[in-house]
Specification:
This protein is of the alpha+beta class. The protein has one domain: Dynein light chain 2a, cytoplasmic (Beta-Lactamase, 2-Layer Sandwich). The chain has helices at residues 7-17, 33-50, 76-96, 135-154, 156-161, 167-180, 182-191; strands spanning 52-59, 64-69, 104-108, 112-118, 123-130. Strands 2-1-5-4-3 form a 5-stranded antiparallel β-sheet, with helices on both faces. Strand 4 and strand 5 form a beta hairpin. Helix 2 (33-50) runs antiparallel to helix 4 (135-154), helix 2 runs parallel beside helix 6 (167-180) and helix 4 packs antiparallel against helix 6 (167-180). The longest helix is centred in the middle third of the chain and has 21 residues, at 76-96.
């Protein structure tokens, strides 16, 4: 089992050995309007099929990207910041436990539950839902949504280098979103 140095020891090592600290470079997150429209459509559909009350895509730095909500309006900026911080702490726990990563964070409350999932290296999906909604249902549909969202954010730089999302890709993404939730479409239409 590898032995890990404590942060204080690493800092002292830097002082006495004059090693340069490691710098991790991080690309900025830039998405275009078409990509954001796909995300908005997906969040609206996910909200309907999962029974969620509030959904948000946020950056891992805690900045909101987009939300889907009807009646329930939490302090979005505070929620995004705290969820990102909590997720970052969870990632550090994974490292301590020699896990490659933890990709999910779940909090259960008296009336609401909070589900935070990793979409990409820089994006998290926050889902809140009531106690009457089944956790398994939320997890299933959230994972389906992440499967669609992940390529959008992982290829965001490439997409923006081309300056526009290909129209075929946009139509294809719309069909994929519809297909993901087609097994519940009939139930939604019958309920209205």
């Amino acid at each position: 089992m590898p032995r890990r140095a404590t942060p204080g020891v690493y800092c002292l090592k830097l002082l006495f050995t004059r090693e340069e600290p490691r710098v991790v470079k991080r690309k900025g997150l830039v998405i275009n309007d078409r990509q954001l429209d796909v995300c908005d459509d997906l969040l609206r559909k996910l909200k309907e099929v999962s029974g969620s009350t509030f959904l948000a895509l946020i950056s891992t730095s805690g900045q909101p990207i987009t939300t889907a909500s009807d009646d329930y309006h939490p302090e979005t900026l505070s929620l995004a910041s705290l969820a990102a911080s909590s997720f970052a702490a969870t990632q550090q726990l994974a490292k301590i436990l020699d896990e490659t990563e933890f990709t999910l964070l779940f909090h259960e409350g008296k009336s609401l539950n909070l589900h935070v999932s990793q979409v990409s290296e820089q994006v998290l999906l926050i889902v809140t839902f009531g106690r009457e909604t089944q956790v398994g249902k939320v997890r299933l549909y959230t994972q389906r949504a992440i499967d669609v969202l992940k390529p959008i954010f992982e290829n965001a730089d490439e997409e923006n280098d081309a300056l526009a999302m290909d129209d075929d890709y946009e139509a294809s993404a719309g069909r994929v979103i519809d297909d993901l939730f087609k097994d519940v479409e009939g139930g939604l239409n019958a309920a209205h």
